[in-house]
Amino acid sequence: MENERNLYHDLESILYTREEVAGAVRALGERITADYRGKKPVFICILKGASVFFSDLIRQVDLPLEIEFMAVSSYGASTKSSGEVRLVKDLDRSILGRDVIIVEDIVDSGMTLHFLKKLLITRGATSLRIAALMDKPARRVAPLTVDYSCFQIPDAFVVGYGLDYNERYRNLPDVGVLSPRIYAQEEQ
Ligand code: IMP
Ligand code: MG
After folding, report:
1. Coil, strand or helix: which one is 164?
2. pLDDT tens digit sequence for 52-64
3. Which residue numbers are catalytic?
4. pLDDT < 50 regions, the chain
5. Cα(108) to centroid of ligand 1, in Å?
6. Ligand 1 center to residue 106 CA distance, Å?
7. Residues enclosing ligand 1, CB less than 6 A?
8. What is the pTM of this model?
């Protein structure tokens, strides 16, 4: 039924169903809850891709956490990174002396998070970890460790559950591999 939605026609396959995603997010929330017991971490959502994952994850964490939002420039209309990272929206509050968890949708080259991690360390965070819904370790360029991830995936371009191609597909409830015919058409 759901798969008859028009957006699904642009997918090659469904990589993770909404049920699989929900299970993995719940397990990650429990792990973070145990790891940060007695602490009041600040969860930073990296807009826009992480927004769906972020809103589900924080509700699976049983801690007196706070939330913040940041935005960096990303791929634009392409499926490949420009290698350039630009800060588009900064934090509203200080993170000096705080335990920080950066929440990202997917780590690819690692350039975005390498940049953000360096920046937030200069802001005086006591500790800093990265939680990503997905990790594509085969594509890593920057030296970066992903502390928490729900799924390690092969080198494919995925959309849905917040992840976009050219600002579309974020509202798909499942995670799917985008059919190459979609970006072959648009990137000519
Ligand atoms: P990185 O700097 O190369 O690690 O790229 C990270 C950002 O690129 C992510 O936050 C996503 O916004 C975007 N990105 C990387 N891979 C994908 C993908 O497969 N689908 C959608 N967006 C992606
Ligand atoms: Mg993106």
Report:
1. coil
2. 999 999 999 999 9
3. 108
4. none
5. 5
6. 5
7. 49, 74-75, 81, 104-112, 157-159, 163
8. 0.93
